[in-house]
Each structure stands twice: as C-alpha cells, then as structure tokens.
Design brief:
Structural class of chain A: mainly alpha
Strand order of the largest sheet of chain B: 1-2
Strand content of chain A: under 5%
Strand content of chain B: under 5%
Shape of chain A: elongated
Number of strands of chain B: 2
Pfam family, one (chain A): Oxidored_q2
CATH class of chain A: Mainly Alpha
Radius of gyration of chain A: 21 Å
CATH architecture of chain A: Orthogonal Bundle
Keywords (chain A): Cell membrane, Membrane, Transmembrane, Transmembrane helix
Main location (chain A): membrane
Shape of chain B: globular
Number of strands of chain A: 0
Order of helices and strands of chain A: HHHH
Largest sheet of chain A: none
CATH topology of chain A: Helix Hairpins
Helix content of chain B: over 70%
Oligomer: heterodimer
Largest sheet of chain B: 2 strands, antiparallel
Order of helices and strands of chain B: HHEEHHHHHHHHHHHHHHHHHH
InterPro entries (chain A): CPA3_antiporter_subunitC, NUOK/Mnh_C1-like
Membrane topology (chain A): Multi-pass membrane protein
Number of helices of chain A: 4
Radius of gyration of chain B: 22 Å
Chain lengths: 117, 505
C-alpha cells in the first residue's frame, strides 16, 4: 500500500509541476489542482497509513492519527476556494488580453514595440 | 488565559462581517464604521503592547484545550510590536483610501479588514498549521485588494501573484506534513521541545521540512530568487493597498524570526541554526538586486516597490547573524522602513494625481500643483529610506552596522549596506530632481487640488519617521528587550504549562 500511495503522490506532484510550468493559464490551473491533490494525500500520509483502525487512543492496539485528517480537510477547503478564484482570474486575463498566455498578450506587446521602432 | 488576545482577531472579523452585509449602505456610513474598526484596532494593539512589555508570555487556548492539543494564541513583545506596526500603518492607509480609492468596489473595506485579521492571526498564533491558515486568510484578502481599482493593468501581475502564492501554500503544507510526521506536533512551543530530541534519519526529514519552510517564508518575504513577483504587483496596486502590502513581506520575516529562532535556534541539537548560513548571502544579494532595480525604475511606484526588496535584504542579513544586538537593530529598522515605504507609496500616488498623463513616471512634465508640499514629503521619505541623518532610516542602519562583530561577515555587510545606501540615494535623487525640478512649459489640465484626507494621511505616514527619531530611546529599549526575549526560548516553552480554566469555576 505504501508503495502505491507514494507513487500516486509522486505522479500527481510531478504532473502538477510540469503543468505549472506551461505558458497557458488553463494548464497552470489544472497543474495547481493536481499539485494540491498530491499535497493533500502527502499530508494525509504524514499520520502514517493504517486500515481499519480507530482514531481514538486506547480503543485498539494501534490507532489512526486524526490530526492529519483534520489538516487535510482544512487544506481541501482552502485549496478549493483558491482554485475557484484562480479560474475566475484566468478568465479575466483571457477577457482583458484576448489571450490566455500567463504573461498577457505577448503578440500585441511585440507588435506595439515594433511599431515604436 | 487572557481574553484580550482574541481582540485583534475579533475586531476586524466582526467589522469585516458587518461591512459584507452593508455593501449597499450609504458610503459615509460604511466609511465611518470601517474607520472606527481600524481605530479600535490601534487602541487594542497599544493596550496589548503595554501588557506584553512586562516580558511575560500570555497564551489564549481556544476551546480551553491544553496546549499542545489545541490551538493557542501567544502574545509576547515581538507579536505586540508587529501588531502595533501593522495597525498604525493600516489606520493611515485606511484614512488615505477614504479620499476616493475605496470607491468602485463595494467590498473594499471588507477585504481591507479581513486582510488585517489574517495579519493579526499570523502574528499571534503559536501553532504552525494555524500560521498556514493565517497566511491563507491574509492572502485571499490580498488577492481581492490587489485587483481592486478596475482596469486591465492589474490582471497579469495579479495572476502571477496568485499562482506563486498557491505554489507557496502547497510547499508550506508539504513542509508542515514532513515536520508533523516526525515530531507528531505542530504547536511551536512543543516543536521547540521535540525538535532538539530528533536524531538520525528523522533529523534529515525535519531538516528537509525546515528548509522547505524557509523557502515558503522567503517567497512571502521576497528574498532574491523569489522576489520577481513583487515589483510589478506592488507598483500596479492602488496606493492604500500598496501601502498596506508594505507589511506583507514583513510577515515572512516575522515568521522566519519566530520559527527559526524558537524551533531551530541555538538549542536545537543537530538542527541548530538551520538555514541561517544560506540566508546571510541571499539577503545581501537581495539587497544588491533591489538597488539595481531601484536605479532602473521608470516610475515612482516601482522605485518604492524595489525599496521594499532593499529593506528585505537589509533586514534579513542581521537576522541571519542572530545575535541579540543584530536582532534588536533589525526590529528597529523594520519599524522605520515599513512605515516609510508605505508613506512613499502614498506620496507617489499623490504625485501621480497632480501630473495628468505623466502620472508617476520619472519623466519631465509641466509644473504640478502643490509642488512644495509633495516634494518635501518625497524628500523626507527618500532621505529616511536611503538611510541619511537625521531621519529614522539612518538610526536603523547605524544600529545594524554597529551590531556586527568584526570579521568577514562584517566586511560583507558594511560594504553592501553602505554602497547600496549610496546607490539608493542616487536613484532617489535622479527620480526627485526629474519629477520635481525639471519641469517643462505648459500646464496640467486635469489636475484637481489634493483632497484633505489623502494629504493628511500621506503626510502623517511620512511624519512617522520623525516620531521614530523622537522616540528612538524607548523604541530601542523595547527592541532590545524583544531580542532578549526571542533568544531565551525556554520561557516560550513554558506556555505548555499554562493552567486551563477549571470546569468548576
């Protein structure tokens, strides 16, 4: 289970980072989402992986740590809000610049610089 | 248990909620209530400052959960210092915004107050995960504030700012997870107990987590490889927002002081002084980078934004050295530079309002109205920022220079700060002489006279540098006590023994 879990976190994070480095806002937003999935799973694993255990001390030989679950819940809520915001911001960028490049409208800038020269 | 500690969080929270529901109320009513909230906040933080000045730690445990199991708010001299610095700056920026900057968006005051709430939680919290939550609260408010003001110029810098900070939040969570997986706690006092006991492979894990945490704080503080988001974002923000943002980089610096002196301090065994040998050279390079940016700035706002980066470098270099004297000097300089930079942002906006289409760009333009008033404000701000006598920047830099012990570090620090200060002065002289002196014939058509509120707010913000000089003795005494308190980590750990309120009484 540990190996599969680690591979999933690694794959999500690697894809997230790759997409983050793209030049269009849509892949960047998807990359942020994948990265936050990877981070949430990572945070969940920081309480150690256990199946069928109770999150209460003393009720069984070992226990499932409840704190990381609470942390993940908080992180999910915050991440969701932030993703919604960044989606709106990307749409605003597309509307303002007629282009979804992360640096705004590159073509227009180059044209205007050429026009100056 | 001291219930006063919740006031800096509750006041802006309640004020902000009130503003949320009265978006369509008359603007005069909204302004009065919003300003009353900020005034109340200043009063509260001054009360907390006098309380904290006795040198003891006060803790407030939410839900009466004994730390380390619940979340605690902790008030000490450092937290009170940051609270006062923030609330005074916020009050003046808020007054400035009443001059018209708060129009156009019904939720400006809401966002402004929620941002203050996030800042105050960050300064008061004694829990690493709660610090993350505080960062998110202040960031999401700052996203809204950064976009405030309409137009399309802010979209791209805003997008960069948001994406970078989301990546920073992810890194924060990863490092929190790494630290928790080894120590089993996120309470800062408990971490200060547990981290020195960590050995072997586990120590490497905590070390990796700690270094990633430093990257996150360095992103917030805009240290060199992570500072390029700042100038564009700050230069495009509306003036009162940019002034309030002067405090945002200081949150990163505060977090570095809090976490790295308490958890990874001298007593942290294998992990003692984690990352500090990296921070010193990075801080100096940041300073140099900021100076270069200031020399190349083509408008007053981006000149001021680069000044933010210069002050981050100047602040982190003595903090990385970590002696009581250098820490105290850094805190003194932090107070001075934060208020001056905020003042310069406000002055730049006033200048822009008087120059028609030339705006705040550093180009020749027809003579502006209120030239004497504005140029005097700019000159005082520039002299204080560059670190010349008689204003507070000089004393801050002098204290920093005097705090270093002789050695190669002293040579590097003295060299960088002095040469950097000189070149900053060149940048300000160039900007000031072009904007205020080299005028061309003609007149600006669109210039409207300055409004009283904005002029008073900007003037007061700049005048704070004189106040700091006048009160340099008490302030210096306070920062010295603060530095001593930060370095004595054993007292902080005692908050774990805070007696809870009994169920009987």
């Amino acid at each position: 289970m540990e190996l599969v879990f680690a591979l999933v976190i690694g794959a999500l994070t690697a894809s997230g980072v790759y997409l983050l480095l793209r030049a269009r806002t849509f892949p960047v937003v998807v990359g942020l989402t994948l990265l936050s999935y990877g981070v949430n799973l990572f945070l969940f694993a920081s309480g150690r992986l256990a199946t069928g255990q109770q999150p209460i001390l003393g009720s069984s030989a070992s226990y499932a740590d409840p704190l990381p679950q609470a942390l993940v819940l908080t992180a999910i809520v915050i991440g969701f809000a932030m993703t919604a915001f960044v989606v709106v911001l990307s749409l605003r960028n597309l509307a303002d610049n007629q282009d979804d490049h992360v640096d705004g409208n590159r073509k227009q800038d180059e044209d205007s610089e050429e026009a100056k020269q | 248990m001291n219930h006063w500690l919740t006031a800096p969080v509750l006041i802006p929270l309640l004020g902000g909620i009130l503003q949320t529901f009265m978006g369509y109320a008359p603007i005069a009513l909204r302004r009065t209530l919003a300003l009353a909230t900020t005034v109340l906040l200043v009063a509260t933080s001054l009360v907390l400052l006098t309380m904290a000045d006795d040198g003891s730690y006060r803790a407030y445990a939410f839900g009466n959960w004994q730390p380390p199991f619940g979340i605690v708010l902790v008030l000490d001299r450092l937290a009170a210092f940051m609270l006062v610095m923030t609330s005074v700056l916020a009050l003046l920026a808020h007054i400035f915004s009443l001059g018209g900057a708060d129009e156009g968006n019904r939720q400006f005051h809401t966002l402004f107050l929620f941002q203050l709430m996030g800042l105050n939680i960050a300064f008061l919290t004694g829990d690493l995960f709660n610090l993350f939550v505080a960062f998110e609260v202040l960031l999401i408010a700052s996203y809204g504030l950064l976009m405030h003001g309409g137009g399309t110029v802010r979209t791209v810098p805003g997008l960069h700012y948001v994406v970078l900070n989301l990546v920073g939040s992810s890194l924060f969570l990863i490092s929190v997870g790494m630290i928790y997986s080894v120590t089993g706690t996120l309470n800062m006092a408990d971490l200060a107990v547990k981290v020195p006991q960590v050995t072997g492979e586990n120590a490497l894990l905590v070390k990796a987590g700690g270094m990633m945490l430093l990257v996150v704080f360095a992103l917030k503080a805009a240290v060199l490889p992570l500072c390029f988001w700042l100038p564009k974002a700050y230069a495009s923000a509306t003036a009162p927002v940019a002034a309030l943002f002067a405090i945002m980089t200081k949150v990163g610096i505060y977090a570095i002081i809090r976490v790295y002196f308490l958890v990874f301090g001298d007593d942290a065994g294998e992990l003692a002084n984690l990352g500090m040998d990296w921070l010193f050279p990075l801080a100096l390079i940041t300073l140099a980078m900021g100076v270069m940016g200031a020399l190349g700035a083509d408008n007053l706002k981006s000149l001021t934004a680069w000044q933010v980066i210069i002050s981050v470098g100047t602040l982190l270099a003595p903090i990385a050295l970590g002696s009581a004297e250098s820490l105290s000097a850094a805190l003194f300089y932090m107070l001075s530079t934060t208020w001056i930079v905020a003042g310069l942002f406000l002055v730049a906006d006033l200048v822009a309002s008087q120059r028609g289409s030339a705006g705040d760009r550093i180009i020749t333009a027809p003579m502006m109205r209120h030239r004497t008033f504005l140029s005097v404000l700019f000159m005082i701000g520039a002299v204080a920022a560059a670190g010349l006598p008689p204003f507070s920047g000089f004393f801050g830099k002098l204290l920093i220079l005097m705090s270093v012990e002789p050695g190669p570090q002293m040579a590097w620090l003295w060299g960088t700060i002095l040469v950097g200060g000189f070149l900053t002065l060149v940048a300000y002289s160039r900007a000031g002489s072009i904007v205020f002196w080299r005028t061309v014939d003609g007149h600006v058509e669109t210039a409207r006279p300055l409004k009283g509120t904005t002029a008073v707010a900007a003037g007061a913000m700049i005048a704070l540098t004189v106040v700091i000089v006048a009160m340099a003795g008490p302030i210096n005494r306070y920062t010295e006590d603060t530095a001593a308190q930060i370095l004595d980590t054993s007292a902080y750990i005692d908050i774990l023994q805070t007696p809870m309120v009994g169920e009987d009484d």
